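User: Need the bound-state model for zinc ion:
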Amino acid sequence: MEEFQLQPTPHVTRRQLLMRGLRCQCPNCGQTKLFKTRLRIHRYCSNCGMRIERGDGYYLGPLCINYAVAVFTFVLPTLLLGFFGYIATKLTLTIAATGALLLPVLLYRFSWGCWLMIYYMCLPDELHANRTADCDDLSFEEERRTRTK
Ligand SMILES: [Zn+2]
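Assistant: Bound-state model below.
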């Protein structure tokens, strides 16, 4: 059972969100890294207490970013080079398959940082630091309830 007390943090601008996303830092306070190991994300920020990993389905955002970056920046261009004869077919398939397997692992952290950045840029009021003191936010209360489970 994890028990955290949310700490008050100053308002977060879009520029700060961008920098924190690219550095894979907590979008709310910017003081901690998102990952506790190479591939394991913190469930809550150890500094401000904001929930980072929000449960089922939340991983789909990073997955889509990871897939899109891997396919459109590496696999598809490699296959096109092979299709138009710049690279031999066997070598093309080997390079594309290797990239398709390795890039998602290498981009995993970056895709999480980008996902949180995009999410909170689109919904800045969802960020704890950007909520008003008199905010009657049900999702905020939901987070408190799920922490005691
Ligand atoms: Zn934080």
